[in-house]
Amino acid sequence: MKILVKAPAKINLSLDVLGKREDGYHDVKMIMTTIDLADRIELELLEQNRIIVTSHNRYVPDDQRNLAYQAAALLKDIYGVKLGAQITITKNIPVAAGLAGGSSDAAAVLRGLNKLWGLNCSIDELAQIGAKIGSDVSFCVYGGTAIATGRGEQIEHIGSPPPCWVILAKPSQGVSTATVYQNLNLNGIEHPNVDGMIDAITNQDYKQICGSLGNVLESVTLKFHPEVAMIKEQMKRFGADAVLMSGSGPTVFGLVKHDSRMHRVYNGLKGFCEQVYAVRMLGEREKLE
Ligand SMILES: C[C@](O)(CO)[C@H](O)COP(=O)(O)OP(=O)(O)OC[C@H]1O[C@@H](n2ccc(N)nc2=O)[C@H](O)[C@@H]1O
Ligand SMILES: Nc1ncnc2c1ncn2[C@@H]1O[C@H](COP(=O)(O)OP(=O)(O)OP(=O)(O)O)[C@@H](O)[C@H]1O
Question: 136, 170, 232, 241: which one is catalytic?
Fold first, then answer.
């Protein structure tokens, strides 16, 4: 038996860091939403008790280091599953990009194997299991649009933002999330207005969404990767309504309301950056469950 599961990327419309915790993580408050750029995961039931991962991508490990492998191993361990799975990942989300590609693969494996192995776990149970793999995995289990707090694993769903285009541009270098958090200096940084973003989404106010975008991690990544600041400038110049770096970076996204403007920003950026995408926000949760 085989099933296909979609693993969409996320962007952070707002990302604030409130403080450093005893366990080495940081307390965050962020608004996350899924976008229509997704990896495709094929899951095949194996009668033998083993997990095999294949991704055909030289930046992605095909062993225990793969977050999709870790998701399957954790489910097996918790529920004493004696069956196995062949996991084939078609990578479309850029790697180490701030788009939660690995986390979304892990989340998709949790949702898919729950069905394939007949575990009958609730989506909330899967999200709790996901948190053991990584801070972004819980959100990715649900998808949609949410406020994420704690170290990112506490999820409160909110309505979707009004429809618009999201143009993504990924500079060639990847970024390590751990290094970005390590280099964050919380003194004297400007905090984004996360509650303003929540109001803007609730009011379906596109202009207010554009005005409320903010990410404290830009203060670190832009310092070490000046090309990120350059791409932000280019995106604004080509006419994006608002621009921000997603997560720990280095991917920059721009919001655009109108189709004609979307083509202009997309084509303009193609001259500067190899990996450029124009996608829609997915917003709704139902599409994943
Ligand atoms: C930047 C974001 O992607 C925004 O959504 C997330 O905060 C990071 O989520 P993630 O990649 O799933 O992160 P994890 O795999 O849990 O952690 C990677 C490393 O990032 C740091 N980390 C992560 C999350 C957090 N709230 N505080 C942290 O300090 C820790 O050093 C950790 O060792
Ligand atoms: N399934 C996977 N897909 C991509 N990378 C993976 C996967 N499993 C493990 N990795 C490893 O994780 C690292 C980070 O990859 P990923 O694409 O998840 O980063 P990210 O988008 O910056 O994550 P986040 O936004 O959650 O911080 C990669 O360098 C890779 O070695």
Answer: 136
Instruction: Among the bound ligands, name the one nearest to the CA of residue 26.
Output: 1
Nearest Cα residue to 165 out of 37, 273, 77: 37
Q: Render pLDDT for 58-87 as a digit per residue (tens, 0 to 9).
A: 999 999 999 999 999 999 999 999 999 999
Please answer whether residues 123 and 288 qualify as being in contact, where contact means their C-beta atoms are separated by less than 8 angstroms. Answer: no
Neighbours of 14 (CB within 10 A): 26
| Average pLDDT along the chain | 95
Residue 118 marked ligand-binding: no
101-140 residue pLDDT tens: 999 999 999 999 999 999 999 999 999 999 999 999 999 9
- Is 103 annotated to bind ligand? yes
Q: How far apart are CA 6 and CA 109, in angstroms?
A: 9
136 catalytic residue (yes or no): yes
Nearest ligand by distance to the CA of 23: 1
Q: 125 - beta bridge partners?
A: none
Instruction: Give the residue, by CA position, lying nearest to ligand 2 atom 7.
Output: 102
> The domain 2-157 is classified under which CATH number: 3.30.230.10, 2.60.40.420, 3.30.465.10, 3.40.1190.20?
3.30.230.10
Task: Answer whether 190's CB lies under 8 Å from 183's CB.
Answer: no
Q: Which CATH class is domain 165-280?
A: alpha beta
**What is the per-residue burial (b if ≥16 Cβ within 10 Å, else e) of 238-268?**
bebbbbbbbbbbbbbbbbbeeeebbebbbeb
